[in-house]
Write a structure and sequence with these properties.
Length: about 400
């Protein structure tokens, strides 16, 4: 007996229909390609390169809940995107996918072939198109800005998590409750600190506000705040408290978008040690009266490149695993623009804090009271003033006849 399947009754470039009322259809990569469709099996090709992969997956995922099957095929495109998340879930057992990786050697290729490709392609493209293992595929394929090996060398530690409770105008107490504030080192009265803050843009998909606190002596990140909050409350209830708690730290707040709201709230709270913009292109940049760090086409590459140098040279201590994860997925496009994949709020607040290290010792940012140890004012007070007796001009050039 010969079994025959359904016959094809219609066939064009986008759809093939069969006599049993089933069909194979090619859908465009829109925001919701499968929404409202009754689908048994979905094949997503090059998922990591879809410009709207998260929205597309949101419409496709419910298919699996009603008995459908989903196959995702893709070349790696860095970490942080939905394809990478699904791959990690397939390896850790947190989703129902079965992950299969095919290295460059899976086909009829030898070491000589790979060596020829290595000479032809930049590292990121070689890792993307011809990876040896999943780590190489995901980490190096996305054109990472920061040194991956240097980031791997950091040893992360678990912080104390909680929030600052205000007992008085500048009297603060840390209370552990698993809140948004992560602390690795509590304030030291003899230390000097600076803070970099990135304010959420307020976009529809929802993003975070972030702040990093750095000890200016050790260049170590001592605390990190990250969470959802209104821009004015971020300034008044978070940054002002952090600044006062860490010895009235120099506060650099990104002034783009809603940053102005945060800066105004800081001023209303009475906090004064706020970074003022400088004209970076000048030989000796003088501070203006404009508050905050302005991220521009000139200042962003500077901040990112100098943070990269600090990480590469091990000149900054980072203990936060989430910050390191964002640094790993911060990429540079072919046009030179840099961005996170998908988020970069932690990267920007750390980059701004790293910039503040250059200004924290200036007299204009010294708080009232005893000069911090190691500052210019501190050294001036410890250098003995030498006042020689009066002498006649030219007396040192006269020969003594005695």
């Amino acid at each position: 007996m010969i079994l025959r399947g359904p016959s094809i009754i219609d066939n064009n470039q986008l759809k093939m229909s069969f006599s049993n009322e089933s069909a194979i259809e090619s859908l465009p990569s829109g925001n919701d390609p499968a929404r409202g469709e009754s689908v048994y099996r979905v094949v997503i090709d090059e998922m990591a390169f879809l410009p709207n992969s998260e929205e597309a997956w949101a419409s496709i995922e419910p298919i699996a809940d009603v008995g459908g099957r989903v196959i995702c095929l893709s070349t790696a495109n860095g970490e942080g995107n939905i394809f990478h998340e699904l791959w990690v879930g397939s390896q850790t057992g947190t989703n129902l996918f079965k992950g299969i990786f095919f290295p460059w050697s899976a086909g009829d290729r030898d070491d000589d072939w790979y060596e020829a490709k290595r000479r032809q392609l930049p590292d990121w493209q070689l890792a993307q198109e011809y990876p040896s293992d999943p780590d190489e595929a995901f980490i190096r394929s996305g054109r990472p800005v920061f040194d991956i090996e240097a980031l791997r060398a950091y040893e992360t530690t678990e912080p104390k998590r909680g929030y600052l409770h205000r007992l008085g105008p500048k009297n603060l107490e840390f209370r552990r409750d698993g809140g948004e504030l992560a602390v690795w080192e509590f304030p030291d009265l003899s230390a000097v600190y600076c803070i970099g803050a990135d304010v959420a843009e307020g976009l529809g998909h929802g993003d975070y506000s972030s702040a990093h606190i750095i000890n200016a002596y050790t260049h170590e990140v001592v605390a990190h705040w990250h969470g959802y909050i209104d821009p004015d409350l971020f300034g008044e209830s978070v940054l002002a408290n952090l600044g006062w708690w860490y010895n009235t730290a120099l506060l650099g707040v990104e002034s783009n978008n809603h940053g102005l709201t945060t800066l105004k709230a800081l001023q209303r709270s009475g906090y004064k040690n706020i970074y003022r913009q400088r004209r970076l292109a000048q030989r000796s940049p003088e501070p203006t009266e404009i508050l905050g760090w302005r991220t521009t086409a000139a200042s962003k590459p500077l901040a990112i490149d100098e943070l990269q140098a600090s990480i590469r040279d091990n000149d900054i201590g980072i203990f936060c695993d989430k910050t390191i994860a964002e640094l790993r997925t911060f990429v540079r496009e072919s046009n030179g623009k840099t961005h996170g994949s998908p988020h970069d709020d932690r990267v920007m607040s750390l980059a701004i804090a790293n910039q503040m290290l250059k200004y924290v010792w200036l007299p204009e940012y010294q708080v009232a009271g005893e000069a911090p140890k190691g500052s210019l004012a501190w050294w001036e007070g410890h250098i003995a003033t030498f006042r020689p007796d009066k002498f006649v001009l030219g007396s040192f050039g006269v020969r003594n006849r005695d």
